[in-house]
Amino acid sequence: TQDPLVIFTPSGKRGRFPVGTPVLTAARQLGVDLDSVCGGRGICSKCQITPSYGDFPKHGVTVEDGALSEWNKVEQRYDDKRGLKEGRRLGCQATVQGDIVIDVPPESQVHKQVVRKAASARVIEMDPATRLYYVEVQEPDMHEPTGDLERLKIALKEQWDLDQVTLPQSLLPRLQTVLRKGGWTITVALHKSHEGGEQQIIEMWPGLTEERIYGLAIDLGSTTIAAHLCDLRNGQVKASSGVMNPQIRFGEDLMSRVSYSMMNPGGDKEMTSAVRTAINGLTEAIATEAGIRPFQILETVFVCNPVMHHLLLGIDPVELGQAPFALATSQSLSLSARDLELNVMNENAQIYILPCIAGHVGADAAAVALSEEPNKSDDLALIVDVGTNAEILLGDKSGVLACSSPTGPAFEGAQISSGQRAAPGAIEAIRIDPVTKEPRFRVIGCEKWSDEDGFWDLTAQTGITGICGSGIIEAVAEMRIAGLVDPKGLIGSAEQTGTPRCEAEGRTNSYLIHDGTEDGGPRITVTQQDIREIQLAKSALYAGARLLMDKREVDKVDRILLAGAFGAHISALHAMVLGMIPDVPIDKVGSAGNAAGTGARIALCNIGARREVETLVRQITKIETAIEEKFQEHFVNANAIPHATDPFPELLT
Ligand code: FES
């Protein structure tokens, strides 16, 4: 007779196993995600399953009573002590006796799918570098003069097949107390390097811990530092938070920070200490928000541009300010929190910094590539991460090119007369009536919509404080559509445009969007200088994209993805009217959300993704915009709105 058939749901995985096989063993052999921290000792209860009985025509089986073994002593003891939910069994104790259908509830699935990207529904399997392991350690014996650590290592080898385990010196003084307190049982958090080899214990608890362990995915940008706190067991984001990068006081953009370091001896140290302090503050804040203790944070992944990368690591970024833009290292880095003075999270927390692509194309671009996978795309994708610096990737299955382009902070609302960050009170979207030249807009944090399309006639509104990046892009594009601005970017006078909203301001004109002064608010205008700033920023972005297209010898891309916290909010149509992105059918422009942040979360949750991004980065062709003559040419032509020479046929359709 055949061995019993075991079918797991929801995965649908099935196989035949000899009578007496524990369900946990069958699950492991079939690659079914069934959790276990205690290694099948009936202590952790992570392996809970729900057997189903009756007829299952869909699966072609009938499950009879007795298809699983009766409760054994261990299961009984667990149920008496802590209670098992109705219908549940411990997968490590129940054994297969006949054909059976077994459901694995979500709480018991360790490899639960977690990271969902905005654009598509790609899901990332949980395979974190840091996991908890429970072991029973041999008590010391007068005749066996080995140390507690040595016996712990033997237990990890015997019970979990873990080799080459190390314990940092800082934990050694606690080891003996923890082992005795736990009655010779202990849970350790063990960090595995993605390169194999050593595995380090980074935290430990007496007995079987109920403690959860967490990781941080940090996108360290020039303007903002954004962090996600993730549960390392299931990848769930427990809290997200961000702070301004305090280095802004040393310079708005990257190059001004590099020059600050060049001009001021010790300037790099000041910036390093400022950013580390900010990360410590952010760690504290995010832990409080999630209601956890910061020492439960055992891992952190960073993505950042090369200058931020160097300053985080305490490396003077001066080499990045001059050709040939040499990085101190382009490889990924595995460090401990202590090395970076990140002393709010667990002191042994492990840090992983994604590799940089080139001197100007950082780990943030690598993270975007990991998240958006242009290297797996059938069609030619242009991915633009819009920020103070734009990271641009162009590619498909046959190869990927990357560059970065210095757009400056205008897209983030900086250096714009009424500019502000995307926060409550900021105008984020705008429409200008082509006939009356009157604007209507949408303000962040304002629930009051008067029009069906969500835009209101704002004259009566108060509390408007400025205009953010997506707002200014739309404003300039709408001004162009309404004929208030000519292709060169010049704002017309009141006579030329027929609206008193165009006001003379010295020798140029500006367009009044909102006069809040009566209510004590600011007067919000788009000045000629604002338009110039946007022209510079968009030309830099377009020229970068064009340069990659030249290298690839194409004059069209199949699709465009706008990424970045801000990129996700840009209207595709307005970006194209401005000539910020190349011509493509509008429905082929999508948003990738915060792709760099998503890439950081992927690398946090999946150790294999770290190997993947390291390989991918080596295969990417790097283009250095600063030394490409063509870049300057593209930049100058892109100054016109939408462009001096390139046609934008899609805009006409
Ligand atoms: Fe821990 Fe079953 S594996 S109780």
Quickly describe the structure.
By secondary structure, this protein is of the alpha/beta class. It contains 16 helices and 29 strands. It has a 6-stranded mixed beta sheet, with helices on both faces. Strands 28-27-18-19-20-29 form a 6-stranded mixed beta sheet, sandwiched between helices.
Structural features, described:
The protein is an alpha/beta fold. It is elongated. The chain starts with a strand and ends with a helix. A hairpin with a 3-residue loop joins strand 12 and strand 13. The strands form 7 sheets. Strands 14-13-12-15-17-16 form a 6-stranded mixed sheet, with helices on both faces. Strands 28-27-18-19-20-29 form a 6-stranded mixed sheet, sandwiched between helices. The chain is 27% helix and 23% strand. It has 16 helices and 29 strands. Helix 11 (528-552) packs across helix 15 and helix 13 packs across helix 14. The protein has 5 domains: 5-108, Roll (Ubiquitin-like (UB roll)), CATH 3.10.20.30; 130-206, Ubiquitin-like (UB roll) (Roll), CATH 3.10.20.880; 214-353, 2-Layer Sandwich (Nucleotidyltransferase, domain 5); 364-409 and 534-652, Nucleotidyltransferase, domain 5; 418-526, no CATH class. Bound molecules: FE2/S2 (inorganic) cluster. The site of FE2/S2 (inorganic) cluster has 14 residues, from loops.
